[in-house]
Amino acid sequence: MSTHPEEVLRLDGITKRFGELTANDAVSFSLAKGEVVALLGENGAGKTTLMNILFGQYTADNGTVSVFGKTLPPGNPRAALDAGVGMVHQHFTLADNMTVQENITLGTRPLFSGRLDRKAARQRIVELSERFHLAVSPDAKVGSLSVGERQRVEILKALYRDVRILILDEPTAVLTPQETDDLFATLRQAIANGLSIIFISHKLHEVMAIADRVVVLRHGKMVDGVAIKDTDKTALAALMMGAEATPPSVAPANPGATLMELRDVTTRDIGNAPGLKSVSLALRSGQIIGLAGVSGNGQAAMAEIVGGQRKPADGSLALAGEDITKWTPRTAVQNGIARIPEDRHKTGTIADFDLTENAILERYNDAPFSRGGWLDWRKSHRFASEIIEKYDVRCPGPDTTIRLLSGGNMQKLILGRVLEAAPQIILANQPVRGLDIGAVNYVHSQLLEARNRGAAVLLISEDLDEIMGLADVIYVIAEGRLSPTFARGEKTPAELGLWMAGQGFDEPVREEGGHHAS
Amino acid sequence: MNLCAKKGVTMRLEPIENPTVLRKLGLPAAALAATFLVASLLAMAAGANPFSVFGLILKGAFGSKFAVLETLNRATPLIFTGLAVAIAFRAKFWNIGAEAQLYAGALVTVVLGTGFLQWPAFAILPVLILFAVLAGAIVLLVPALLKTRFGVDEVVTTLLFNFIFLLFISMLLEGPLKDPMGMGWPKSARLIPDARLPRIVDGLRLHWGFGLALISAVMIWIIQTRSTLGYEMRAVGLNKEAAAFAGIPVNRVLVKTALLSGGLAALAGFSEVAGLKGSLTLDLSPGFGYTGIIVAMLALLNPLGVVVAALFVAGIFVGADSMSRAADVPTYLADIMLASALLMMVLAIMLTRFRVVRG
């Protein structure tokens, strides 16, 4: 902290309790002018709570937040904004049907303003986007932009409000490797212009690449604050985990028979995201198939087709040679498809149900959990207890409301729910998004174990590292179309990145709606 | 550039992750206390001593054998409509039309029970119950299908159905169902004796409708906590998306919920006609369908709580009648007490999940 003279932000002894749980335990750190501090920690380590306190969404039980030497009043969300702190959330807060300029200026000016005003605003946006290398047209409708472009709009929105401190929550989760490089160039430009940055991430190599200093949180406590030059990835992982983290080793695959097959499957678009366009894919026993791609390129349609939530508009599906084109989520579960959904909060679990009720969510209608329409709570309870024990779900017990669990423990319950039936086909859609390294390794080793006992795994992920580390064969999905098969190690990340951006396909990807990543 | 030009004291809701037991129980108790405070002020404004007013209400509702029986009789239709609303709201199916379903049950009872079926009581009463339930279920099936097929808001359809159905009943009572011996009043013929619900104890004015209501409450409670259907209804109410993903047939569950809810509300109409009035008139229900919403909300949608809430609400109505005669305070005090109890309880429910902070 002494290397940078001017301190812009200081969190002092922040403590926040939710009942029994201490989300933040006397956390203190500071941020200097022109500095990037990475906030690193397991899921449930208290990063989000800390940021919510900084922004006045929560009131801390103890401790103070000061910006430019002035202490912020607790529990006032405007105070942080007024003091020049801006945040780019993981989930964007943009209005799709408005232009980039309208989104950026929204809330900064009176509702009705003159043309001169708008012209000045436009000029300022163009000037900012040039200075910070944020290429985006002020007149484009946000709904037609790619995810990377939307993120640039979010950053512009913050810069337009003259923020001096920029907080980015998992900003690279939705970007291609090329887009991540662009983002880092922008961030370096911002530092050169005297801004300070808090960078929240799970990806150690990114933290190493961009941060000056890293603050590590574990179980709500701040375990260390070290300068990047004094540490390395292994040391950081150990700090986060409290122990040396070892990624699972991958034994060679031993692929067997085709279990499930998609033949020329075409679906309708899902909102702004394209559907599948004549996709053929075979899921083979004993193999992990990785589906790489930038968010919103047809992954949702693929997951819904395999999971039984969507029927193809054209083409067919076969399970062990039998036609299953017309099936439903229920028949998918009954036919032994394990589905790990993309959003564990909204689709994977029911927040106000307890662990027992969530554990039987897919199989409440089958023995032994019910008989003749009547539930057997004793057996359901025992099933939940088994999952808790076997999959190391950290919770007070099977009667706990699942809302109170961290993301990693929620995911472990979902894993237990679907893997206990020893499924032959596993659909894992972003199974480790937002999880800490410990939970990531755990999920990955479970998937590998399932593969080794002969299951077919379809791994959909926007994290190229995950795909390249785990998948036996790799496909890239772009604009709803599937690339040829690549074997493990056949392509470099940069080469896959080009496919992810829509290049290399037989015919040029249509520019309809402009979904493609540029 | 300043993001917000205006500054003032504003308030905001902050979610409570895990409310304490004190909060969960204390706030509803505080809501009731606040209700009595509001009523006290009004009683004082009417020139009466609030304590004697509440004493008179209590005495009027539970002070004598006659009063207790009167309260139980009044609570009976409220238990049925309260259950109907509670079970539907649990699945987030907003049935505001219990009034129409109540009249559907009453209509079927007088159509079949005034001589159309000439059977002994042990055979005719189950048939009347069955057809009344079916009638209520069908009346609510229409809004349920409009919702699941076309996305039509059931709040609008069920609410409007109340008016349509009441006018339909009015038309029938002026026409084909009009009692020829009724001296011109819009009133149906009387049920045959075997179609009447017997009294629970001979000589006491309490009919078996009340017993049926208690049995229904217990049955609904068992269905909600032990059956797969109850589990489905709760899952759909809490998170439709996750329910659909897990393979719960969301639309089918909503339709089943609607059938059950409509059937329960219709039992209120059956029990009022067969147990109390003996014939159908347009003033059969002084808004039991709407009061059912208050009962369900006060019970926090718990089926057993509905019985307690219905007794509370019925007690206030019955007690207010006799209080009004003794203390010269208008009976409208009862309506105000219920309205404020509902408002306070909704506020209490919100405050168990959120706390108010400045900023």
- Indicate the structural class of chain B: mainly alpha
Strand content of chain A: 15-25%
Which superfamily, in CATH terms, is the homologous superfamily of the largest domain in chain A? P-loop containing nucleotide triphosphate hydrolases
Please report the two chains with the greatest interface, counting residues with C-beta closer than 8 angstroms to the partner's C-beta. A-B, 51 and 31 residues
Shape by Cα distribution of chain A: globular
Estimate nothing, just give the exact number of structural domains of chain B: 1
Round the mean pLDDT of chain A to the nearest integer and report it.
Answer: 86
- Total helical segments of chain B: 13
The value of Rg of chain B in angstroms is 22 Å
Reported CATH architecture of chain B: Orthogonal Bundle
Order of helices and strands of chain B: EHHHHHHHHHHHHHE
Pfam family, one (chain A): ABC_tran
Main location (chain A): membrane
Membrane topology (chain A): Peripheral membrane protein
InterPro entries (chain A): AAA+_ATPase, ABC_carbohydrate_import_ATPase, ABC_transporter-like_ATP-bd, ABC_transporter-like_CS, P-loop_NTPase
Overall description:
The complex is a heterodimer of chains A (about 525) and B (about 350). Chain A has about 525 residues and is an alpha/beta fold. Chain A is about 30% helix and about 25% strand. In chain A, the strands form 5 sheets. In chain A, strands 13, 16, 19, 20, 21, 22 and 23 form a 7-stranded mixed β-sheet that branches. In chain A, a hairpin with a 2-residue loop joins β14 and β15 (about 320-325). Chain A is globular. Residues about 510-518 of chain A have low confidence and may be disordered. Chain B is mainly alpha-helical and about 350 residues long. Chain B has a single domain (about 35-360), classed as ABC transporter involved in vitamin B12 uptake, BtuC. Chain B is globular, with a radius of gyration of 22 Å. The two termini of chain B are about 20 Å apart. Classes of the chains: A alpha/beta (about 525), B mainly alpha (about 350). The interface of A and B includes residues 57, 162 and 351 of A.
